UniProtKB/TrEMBL annotation:
Protein's UniProt name: Carboxy-S-adenosyl-L-methionine synthase
Family: Belongs to the class I-like SAM-binding methyltransferase superfamily. Cx-SAM synthase family.
NCBIfam families on file: carboxy-S-adenosyl-L-methionine synthase CmoA
Annotated Methyltransferase domain residues: 63-159
Organism: Alcanivorax hongdengensis A-11-3
Species classification: Bacteria, Pseudomonadati, Pseudomonadota, Gammaproteobacteria, Oceanospirillales
One MF term in the entry's GO annotations: S-adenosyl-L-methionine binding
Quaternary structure (record): Homodimer.
Length: 243
């Protein structure tokens, strides 16, 4: 059900509706994210590698805004030797339903607690790794500080937050260049100019990107001690913040 090609914005819409993670998106999500986010497969693989290094026994591993559970699956595969419960959360019913099917097929339903919920209001248990893989950008900016602070408080010493985001740049020319290069990446992956522009309208005021400096300051203020950007391509990056 979820391996179809993304053609959602291929035909002209009179009015482009706000982007939402509904059934239509779920059906094409693996194709959409792979063709829209530069380096997405690498980022997923490396989340597994980071889990192998940072997962501490008897602490939780969180996948927050898990969509179909790609990061959960990568973390589970590389931490089989440790008693770390995995908790995967998303506030889209359609995503959670399909994630349940996929985790079942992968034989992971026992190990993973899949929860429908809002990550900006949920309570966190002591964790050694939390992943926000392209999720924070969809959370209201006014709620971001409190979420990151609560996550930092729940993270055990030596534990990490992996934060992947689309970013903006303070310098207008650089912002334009990186945005153009991202659009060239999408075009090279088969998206038309119409698809690119309609998707962009749909994401307006839904995906609210911030600069790397804003992310860095928020993380340091929340109590993370070190921040390492370990992946960047055009206007997409992933960092790890160490508690
Ligand atoms: C771009 S997708 C994340 C991709 C996923 N982490 C992965 O690696 O494949 C963003 C996800 O965040 C979820 N989301 C957005 N706001 C949320 C919130 N407040 N609480 C929980 N999930 C949220 C969306 O439903 C969507 O599934
Ligand atoms: O398609 C775009 O232009 C995006 O900004 C990418 C992005 C993301 O960063 O999450 C936006 C929504 C979809 O979930 C997939 C990818």
């Amino acid at each position: 059900m979820s391996d179809q090609q993304d053609r959602i914005y291929a035909t002209a819409h009179d009015q482009v509706a706000r982007f939402s993670f509904d059934d239509t998106v779920v059906r094409v999500f693996p194709d959409m994210i792979r063709r829209s986010v530069p380096g997405y497969p690498t980022i997923i693989d490396m989340i597994g590698v980071l889990a192998a290094r940072y997962a501490q026994p008897d602490t939780v591993l969180y996948d927050l805004g898990c969509s179909l559970g790609a990061a959960t699956t990568a973390m589970a595969a590389l931490t089989r030797d440790r008693a770390c419960p995995l908790i995967a959360v998303d506030n889209s019913e359609a995503m959670i339903r399909q994630a349940g099917t996929l985790l079942e097929e992968a034989g992971l339903r026992e190990r993973v607690s899949l929860q429908l919920g809002d990550v900006s209001t949920m309570a966190f248990e002591p964790c050694s790794m939390a992943v926000l893989n392209f999720t924070l950008q969809f959370i209201e900016p006014a709620r971001r500080d409190a979420l990151i602070r609560r996550l930092a408080e729940a993270t055990v010493p030596g534990g990490i937050l992996v934060l992947s985001e689309k970013i903006t740049f303070a310098d207008a020319a650089e912002n334009q260049l990186q945005t153009d290069l991202h659009h060239a990446f999408k075009r090279n992956n088969g998206y038309s100019d119409l698809e690119i522009s309609q998707k962009r309208s749909a994401l307006e005021n839904v995906l609210i990107a911030e600069t790397l400096d804003v992310h860095r300051e928020r993380l340091l203020k929340a109590g993370y001690r070190h921040i390492h950007v370990w992946f960047r391509c055009f206007n997409f990056m992933s960092l790890m913040a160490v508690r």
